[in-house]
Amino acid sequence: MHRHPFTNSLWRQHDETVPYPRLESSVSCDIVVIGAGIAGLVTAYELQKRGKQVVLLEAAEVGRGTTGHTTAKCSVQHGAIYSKLIRTFNQETARLYYEFNEEALRYLKDQVVDGFDIDYETKDSYLYSIEGSSQLVAEREAYEQLGLAGGDATEEVKAALPLPVKQALVIRDQGQIHPVKYLHELARRFVEAGGRLHEKTRATDIISGPRPIVTTSTGRRVQANQVVVATHYPFNDIRGLYFSKFEVERSYIVACETEQSVPAGMYLSVDTPSRSFRTFQEGEKTYMLVGGEGHLSGHVTETRSRYDRLDRFAHDAFDAKKASFRWSSQDLITLDHLPYVGQMFSREPDVFVATGFAKWGMTNGIASGLLLADVLTGRENRFRELLNPLRSKLKAADVGQFLKTNLDTATQFVKGSLEKSGLLDDLQLDEGGIVQVDGKKVGAYRDLDNECHLVSTRCTHMGCTVNWNDAERSWDCPCHGSRFDTKGNVLEGPATKPLSYERKPDASKQ
C-alpha cells in the first residue's frame, strides 16, 4: 500500500531552540499576551521594551502555529485587495490599509538593520493571470489612485515565468523571511528585555473584573491590568459572537528542490485554482515553495490530492523535484476583509484581540502588534478606528457574507449527524474515518503499528461533527476550524479542550 508522507514544515526542520518553561505557578503582571505567533510576539516585545511587565502564554511551542506554516511573504500586495476596499468602503480606507501594512514592512527592515538574523530578502511582488482578469484591471486602477510603487508588469512577468501569462501587476521592494527564525529572534529579545514566556501553557478562560484573570488548562492563573488575545482564532469567541464573523480557509504548500534557474520575486495568481510561489535558498539548495488548493476548513477529507496537484505544478512549471516538505495553513477571513485589532468586547475595556489576517499574517500581524502596543501605552495610532473589532456598520456585502458563513455552519451541524459511518475492521494502516464501535459513532485512526485510536466526533468548541483529514492525520471541525490530532489533543483553536480518547489494540489485520 502506498503511504503518503507525513506533513512537515520546511521552516521547522532545524528548530533546535531551547524550550521555554511551562507556567507552574499563578502570577501577576501588567499585561498578559496569549499566543506566541507573530502578532502576539510583536505585541509582547514592544510592550516590554516600553516598560510594561508582560507575561506571554503559548499553548504549544514558539513556531508551531500558523506563522510557522506560511510562505512568509512580507508584502503589501494582498491579492486584489485595494480595488475591493475602494469598492466596499472608499479610497481613504484602502489607503489606510496600505499604510498600515507598509508600516510593518518598514519595521521589519529596521529590525534587519538592527541585527535580526531572519534570512530577509528584498523581492518584488507580482499578481498575474493566465486567463485574463477584470480583477487585475480594477486593481491596476486602484494602484494608480493610491499612488502605489508599481503597476502593470505584464511583459516583465511574461518574460520571467514559463506560463502563458496574459496580465500582471507588480509592487516593488517587498520582502520575504524565514518566519520561525523571526519568531525565535523576537522571543529571545523579549525574554532578554525582562519578559516572561511560557510554552505548553494553554489559556482556557478569561475572568472579567477590575484586573482580569486568565486561567490555564492546569489551573494556573495570570492576573493583569490588560489581556491581549493573539491566538489566531480567538479561543474566547463565544462572547461577542466572533465565531459568526469568520470564514476559515485551509490551504497547502509544498517545498520542492530545483536545479533550474528560477524567477526572481514573489508571485500569486488570481485565477482558479490560485497558485502562490516564492523561492528559498538553503546553502546550495534552492527550494521552490508553491501554495494554493484552498478550501473551507474541515470540508475536505481527501486532502492528499491537494499536495499532489501542487507537486505537479512545481514539476511542470519549474522542473522541480518531488516535494521534500509539505505543510498546510489555516486563515481567518473577516466579513469585510479587514482584521479585527483592538478592544474585543464593548463592556470589557481591558481585553484586546488581534485576528482575521486572511492570508497576510506577516505584515498584518506585525502591524497589529504595533497598533496594540500603542493602544496599551496610551499612544495615538491613526489605524485604531480602521481595524476596531467593534465596528458596527455592516455593508451589504458583509451581511451577505455573514448569512453565507452561518448558513454553512448550520448545514455542517445537520450534515454531521446524518452521515453514514463505516466499520473499524475496514480501516487500513495509516487510515482514519468515522466508524461504528459498540453501536456508537466514533472517529478512528489505525496507525502504522496497527493500533486504533478512537476519539469522540463531537468538537469540544460548539459540538459540530469533526471530519478526518487524511494528509494531516487530524480531525478537523467544518464549523469553526478547530483541529485535533489522532489522540484528540487540540492542534488548533478555538477549541481549548481535547476530544475524549481511547486506544484500542486490534489484531484482526495482523
Automatic annotation (TrEMBL):
Bias-annotated ranges (Basic and acidic residues): 500-510
Region ranges (Disordered): 488-510
Keyword Metal-binding carried by entry: yes
A Pfam family it matches: DAO
Keyword RNA-binding: no
Domain Rieske: residue ranges: 419-499
UniProt superkingdom: Bacteria
Keywords: 2Fe-2S, Disulfide bond, Iron, Iron-sulfur, Metal-binding
InterPro entries on file: FAD-dep_OxRdtase (IPR006076), FAD/NAD-bd_sf (IPR036188), Glyco_hydro_18_chit_AS (IPR001579), Rieske_2Fe-2S (IPR017941), Rieske_2Fe-2S_sf (IPR036922), Rieske_Fe-S_prot_C (IPR005805), YhfW_C (IPR038010)
Entries under PANTHER family matching the protein: RIESKE 2FE-2S IRON-SULFUR PROTEIN YHFW-RELATED, SARCOSINE DEHYDROGENASE-RELATED
Protein name: FAD-dependent oxidoreductase
Natural source organism: Exiguobacterium aurantiacum
